[in-house]
Design a protein that fits this description.
There is one protein chain. The strands form 2 sheets. The chain has a 3-stranded mixed β-sheet, covered by helices on one side. The N and C termini lie far apart (about 35 Å). The protein has about 130 residues and is an alpha+beta fold. It has 3 helices and 5 strands; from the N terminus they run βαββββαα. About 25% of the residues are buried. It has one domain (about 15-129).
Length: about 130
């Protein structure tokens, strides 16, 4: 099992080395070996997060698996309001008004929906602005 994809929330971004910057923070880089806060998400958060996942950045060639599913698969297809996308091979970046950026794997949508991952409040607030 890979554990090199885990980065604690709100730590400096480090997944793609040449994209590192002081104002970019990790969110949602989860691993089964590390517990995380759980909470049912609002419909507003789910709608906004799904929409952001349709406009991803930093696409990679392979897919990251969801380690929390009973049968992990590489690439997770998700649907919302008639739209669909496959998660696990890109990131979403959420900018704040003060120049901070949160970088999350696009699997974050799946983590929130299926595994009740509760992202940091400041990330959620920036996303919903």
């Amino acid at each position: 099992m890979r554990t090199d994809m885990y980065y604690p929330d709100l730590t400096p971004y480090c997944y793609i080395e040449h994209k590192r910057a002081l104002n970019v923070l990790n969110v949602g880089w989860l691993d089964i070996q590390y517990p995380f806060l759980r909470k049912k998400a609002s419909e507003e958060l789910l709608d906004t997060l799904f929409e952001r996942c349709l406009h991803f950045v930093n696409r990679t060639r392979g897919y990251q698996e969801c380690q929390f599913c009973p049968v992990p698969t590489f690439g997770v297809e998700v649907f919302r309001h008639g739209a669909s996308t496959t998660l696990g091979s890109a990131e979403i970046w959420v900018e704040t008004t003060d120049g901070k950026i949160y970088a999350a794997p696009n699997l974050i949508y799946h983590y929130v929906v299926e595994h009740d991952y509760d992202p940091p409040t400041e990330f959620v607030e920036a996303l919903l602005r």
